[in-house]
Amino acid sequence: MRKMVLSVLVGNTSGVLNRVAGLFSRRGYNIDSLTVGETENPLFSRMTIVVHGEEEILEQIEKQISKLVDVKEITELKEGSSVCRELILVKVAANAEQRAQIIAIADVFRAKIVDVSPESLMVELTGNQVKLDAFIGLLEGFTVLELVRTGITGLTRGIEKGGVCYEDVGE
Fold first, then answer.
1. pLDDT tens digit string along 104-142?
2. Is 44 in contact with 149 (CB distance < 8 Å)?
3. Minimal CA–CA distance to 121: which of 141, 147, 102, 140?
4. Statement to judge: residues 61 and 114 lie in one domain
5. What domain range is 88 assigned to?
């Protein structure tokens, strides 16, 4: 099994997320991660979809997504030719002694302390999955109160924007 990260440019219309997610549920495929946001052009949104599977299944998923009317472009984000990142927020219980230790760990990872209360710290960290997993691993000796991950998002490297001509779409 391998992991595939797809960057899917879609029309920014109501129901498009439901149609893409429905494709996966109808076929019994699991989505490991899904992020969606408007692009530099408000007519389009970009979905980053992470899936695992055998090669034949992954090929089928890519073909099925490309058949959807809302889909303008689909690109596999391959390691080395793309940049993928994820954001986490972690709320950690912390007394005065633990606070200094958590801040030291956060500094090593270039994380930001985004909220402080008398009983806890909230840390924000952006990076690849390996970096985030390593950070979370170092927090195992502390009480993690809450943790949220955004899921992967990414773009291909270089100046190419892909094969879509914005003038020809959405008119």
1. 999 999 999 999 999 999 999 999 999 999 999 999 999
2. no
3. 102
4. no
5. 84-149
Q: Tell me the two tokens of residue 98.
A: 């633990």
pLDDT in tens, 11-58: 999 999 999 999 998 988 999 999 999 999 999 999 999 999 999 999
Single-letter amino acid, residue 105: I
Alpha carbons 66 and 99: distance in angstroms, whole number: 49
Sequence-ordered alpha helix ranges (H) in the chain: 16-27, 55-67, 96-108, 129-138
DSSP letters, 125-171, are: EEE-HHHHHHHHHHTTTS-EEEEEE---EEEESSS---S--GGGS--
Q: Based on the domain organization, do 93 and 111 belong to the same domain?
A: yes
Six-digit token string for 104: 């030291």
